[in-house]
Task: structure prediction
Amino acid sequence: MWGGSCHSPLLFSRTKMPTITSRPLPRSLTELIPPETYDQILSHLRGSRSSLISCCLVCKAWLPASRHWLFSTSKVTVLRTNANAFLELVNRRNETFTIIPLIQHLILEQGGSHRLPFLGAHGNHENFQFDDVLCKFDGLVSLRSLRLGWIRADIGPRVPIALRSNFHSLSELELNSVVLTSVQQFFDILGALPNLEILSLFSFSFGYEVMDGRVHTRTMESTPPPPPLQVFHANIKESVTQFLFTWLTFHGMSSLHTVAFGLFSKQTNEVLSDFLRESGTRIQALKIRDAYTAEGIDLSPCVNLRVLSLGWICLLPEYAPGSVRFATEVMQTIDSNLEEVTIVIRLEKGEMKELDAFDWKGLTQVLQKPCFKGLKRLKLSVSGRREIMTKVAGERLSTIPQKMLEVVQWTLSESHSRW
Result:
């Protein structure tokens, strides 16, 4: 009646399946597995902190690789409140188990604010001063990135000496909310890190020494050459931007492939254009913050540019920075074959008149340039009203393939201009 074999779900549900008992492999076999095999397997968990913590507890053979990948993405933060506890770990670094040799990313904050401090700021900061403690941070053999924050023109020559002694293998440095006493102090810090590849400056200043992009106490001929940076992020005020990029231009900086800066004024933009004419041929990714004006900027020397980020931009005239035509005015200067463009937009009210103010017609026209024929992704990152922006962008940019267009909610880093 049923023909051949029966495939009834009911019959299968009544069939008693054999019980399989999982047994661990004998030690004689597991000891033959090369450690590189564990490393390869565990590397696929590098984005899962909870899984890696569990793997640390499985067995002795899994521990080295699990700890390595766990600390590859973990950042250790040392503040005034836990500095003594961290120093105690440093002093016990030769014990059987310690995290000191595993730390790859370290954040050191003298204070606790992310706002740019002012010279002469008040407060009790004697308990944690970089001059006193950096020389004691020994044994960080795996350290790759370091962030120094909340320096208020209160460090001396001992800091560069400590960096050279204990942090010389660093490849990435971030100075965040930092006021240095002089330009020479900045050069001393960079000189202490010969392997530096990534430099990020956020809310960074030289006190009152730099005026109008110039240091009145020295000439460019007396400045040392920069380290062979590959990535340079500069979220800094206009005068410091002018000075640093004039310095890079003077020394013929040619190793950079990723650069971020702000467009403040025609004068600053001309300085940046001079830098791009000298060093722009290798740049593949460009991020433009502080989008006040596009006047004077020229991206045509960046012949290998593939990724461009612009913003953030405000669309109402009473709010800065940016203008409704900023993105199109910058993109009109491009001659390279771009693959990805991101425009970061801050919506104050999200009303239709605000969305309509964007230069949709100009953007449509500039995307017709031959250099944009290979564009794979146009992303609009907005502060809110993503659904409405998706609808408006789809209508205003109907001539471009819709699969290329993407509207997303901006990230926390974009909202703080740290993208």
Q: What stands out?
A: The radius of gyration is 27 Å. The longest strand covers residues 145-152.
